[in-house]
């Protein structure tokens, strides 16, 4: 799990190496955060099915800096952090220690 800060709201998201976007949030959480919809997009789900979803703009604090990102909506009740969010990062996963460490690449 990765903690993402949306303004003053801390959100826990699963780091998903198969998700190429930045963030995917449940629709009810998007409503609570009052995010602005900017469009619609298609993506391929884990089952291989093509799905259509709404796209929103959000601002997050990431490594101490504010960053504008695209957020995809989902009917699921969990949040995902995808690989585009970690474009300039190093991700260390140690399965035997149940550890995920994300650091900013220089």
Structural overview:
This protein is mainly beta. The chain has a single domain, classed as Acid Proteases (Cathepsin D, subunit A, domain 1, Beta Barrel), CATH 2.40.70.10. It is 7% helix and 58% strand. It has one helix at 27-33, and strands at 2-6, 9-15, 23-26, 36-44, 50-62, 65-74, 80-81, 89-94, 99-104. Strands 1-2-7-3-6-5 form a six-stranded mixed barrel. Strand 4 (36-44) and strand 5 (50-62) form a beta hairpin. The radius of gyration is 14 Å and the shape is globular. It starts with a strand and ends with a strand.
- Element-level helix/strand string: EEEHEEEEEE
Structural class: mainly beta
Distance between the termini: 23 Å
Shape: globular
CATH fold title: Cathepsin D, subunit A, domain 1
Strand order of the largest sheet: 1-2-7-3-6-5
Strand content: over 45%
The CATH architecture is Beta Barrel
Concise account of the structure shown:
This protein is mainly beta and 106 residues long. Helix content is 7%, strand content 58%.
């Amino acid at each position: 799990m990765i903690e993402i800060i949306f303004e003053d709201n801390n959100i826990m998201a699963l780091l998903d190496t198969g998700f190429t976007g930045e963030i995917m949030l449940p629709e009810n959480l998007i409503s609570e955060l009052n995010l602005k919809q900017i469009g619609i997009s298609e993506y391929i789900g884990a089952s291989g099915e093509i799905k259509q979803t709404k796209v929103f703009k959000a601002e997050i604090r990431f490594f101490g800096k504010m960053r504008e990102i695209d957020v995809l909506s989902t009917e699921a009740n969990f949040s995902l952090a995808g690989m585009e969010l970690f474009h300039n990062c190093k991700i260390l996963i140690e399965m035997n220690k149940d550890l995920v460490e994300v650091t900013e690449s220089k």
